[in-house]
Amino acid sequence: MVFDLHSHSTCSDGLLSPAQLTERAVLKGVTALALTDHDDVSGLEEAKHAADEWGLEIIPGVEISVLWQGTTLHIVGLHIDPEHQPLASGLSDIRAGREQRARKMADSLAAAGIEGSLEGARRYAQNPELVSRSHFARFLVAQGVSRDTNSVFRDYLTPGKPGFVPHQWALLTDALDWIRGSGGIAVLAHPGRYRINEAQRGQLLREFRDSGGAAVEVVTGSHAPDEYVTWARYAKEFGLLASVGSDFHGPGESYRDLGEIPALPAGCEPVWSLF
Rounded distance, CA 65 to CA 76, Å? Predict the structure, then answer.
């Protein structure tokens, strides 16, 4: 089996539809793909239907936005039940908050002399409730404000830069309850990206584990090779399973393509041992 347990479609901030994503996964040699759109599960049915035709296993998933000690975290849920009411209600509340944040982001960019960003970002979003930083970034590139999306996130939309708006996402404990209540497995996504110190890492991993978290992404698109070893060590230290995922958003916009994920370091217990 070739697992890719973190990917996005146009139902959040990806560039490919759920059906196109599944086709690309097959062409890239993936045999089990988790569709984990941000705070939304509307693409799962299309992905499952397309995957059945391709012989690909689709793992129903989601990536939930969480605020922990002032830092935005992402929690991936694998093998969730998208019909679970507390999960569905929680995701609906987060999406409503995203719309409010998008308006404030546009106001901040306008104050910096960039007009029309909300309407521009919406042109890149399939769901108007899910206008994200990625959609604003694509607008800024199209307008010639920045060379590419990586440049956008150096100059805009991040703390201290125009377009950044802090937001109260879900609580960590709530997100874990929703995932576990739906029968799912909770995974801490791309932990190397969070700007927290060593003491905070330990505190986060303990809270995550003790509140029902099961795994941490060890090999993921935004981790450098030396981080694979670091997070394998953390997983072992805190009794967590290891997950892998490209965090694929689309051609030209991702750290790694679907299926282009190295193997887990030796000694890791993979999260798919629970599947």
Answer: 9
Query: Strand, coil or helix: what is 203?
Result: helix
**What residues have CB less than 8 Å from 221, skipping those under 6 apart?**
6, 190, 245, 246, 247, 248, 254, 255, 256, 261
Phi, psi (degrees; rounded to nearest 5) at 257: -80, 165
* Residues shown for the chain: 275
Termini Cα distance of the chain: 12
pTM: 0.86
- Whether the CB-CB separation of 173 and 68 falls below 8 Å is answered with no
Determine the 3-state secondary structure of 169 from DSSP. Answer: coil
Q: Convert the pLDDT of each residue in 152-201 to its tens digit.
A: 999 999 989 999 998 889 999 999 999 999 999 999 999 999 999 999 99
Give the side-chain half-sphere CA count within 13 A for 253.
18
pLDDT of 230 over the 90 cut: yes
Q: Does domain 3-91+185-274 correspond to CATH entry 3.20.20.140?
A: yes
- What are the tokens at 8? 């996005």
- Using the 8-state DSSP alphabet, how is residue 261 labeled? -
In one-letter notation, the amino acid at residue 244 is V
Q: What are phi and psi of 187, to 5 degrees?
A: -130, 130
Reported as half-sphere exposure (CB side, CA atoms, 13 A), residue 170 has a value of: 28
Whole-angstrom distance, CA of residue 245 vs CA of residue 215? 12
Please state the domain extents for the chain. Answer: 3-91+185-274
Return the DSSP state at 262. Answer: P
Q: Where are the beta strands (DSSP E) in 128-222?
A: 185-188, 215-220
Angle ∠(105,111,116) on CA atoms, nearest 5: 65
